[in-house]
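Before the break, one more example. Copy the sequence into your notebook; we will annotate it together after we see the structure.
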Amino acid sequence: MGLCLHDIGKIGVPMRSSTSRPLTDEEWMVMRTHPQLGALMVADVRQLEKAREVILAHHERYDGKGYPNRLAGNECRWRHGLTIADAFDAMISDRPYRSAMTLAEARAEVRRCSGTQFDPKAVAAFESISDTQLEAVANKREQPTEELLSLIRG
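Here is what the structure looks like once it is written out:
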């Protein structure tokens, strides 16, 4: 459930009129509030207590340079697979300001970020996913982040 809601806070982030360019520093500051906004949106729903944790921590990084709380290493190990799945989905998706990466380019980017953005153990689990499995998930496009996470978890 939490995985489906991880970006719910983006509802509270104002949309800009031009989407053909990367976000400005100011726009990134606003965008980076979406985990807290999402956590606040579900805070009073007892059944979504675990989802709230996922929503709040899905942009934390293994090296502690993520947001909003700069958690590092094992401080929130349970969501390291989610971080890779969410990032990989973003990498292989077209954005108004950039084209999607190929699966090989995105896989190489995950590898490159092992030990900084991503937990090396989660990267090792991700590496065990075959290209055929990744292609199937990428082509489905319904809920690729969820499917990728299930593959990473094995």
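The mean pLDDT is 83. The longest helix spans residues 80-91. Try to locate both features in your own notes.
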